[in-house]
Design brief:
121 residues
Length: 121
Amino acid sequence: MKDVSPTIEKNVVAPKSVLFALKIMRLYEQLCSTGTDRLLATHLLQSGTSIGTLVREAELTESKPEFLDLINMALKDAQTAARCLLLLKEGDYIHSLEYDKLNADCDEITTLLTEIIDQLQ
């Protein structure tokens, strides 16, 4: 989209969301190999990997309303991923250190997406 926020123009969110998705994919494989609840692991995989897809779709859109809708959906998925990570930590499926690292990445992406939305509204 033309005239989008500086955060998107600098392509800050996209590479961070790709790295986050790769980390989530590795965690998903680890969780599945240890017999963790597949439903929660799958939910984390879906939300954690869709953030980058939605950001990319937003970059390609032609209208500001559609752009904002896609960024809002990416934000919702980031928040869902954060909630899944918390549940996995609290359920002792992942260690606190692993949670802290992934949650920090997720928080950073959430902050960037929120900044984009605030700048355009």
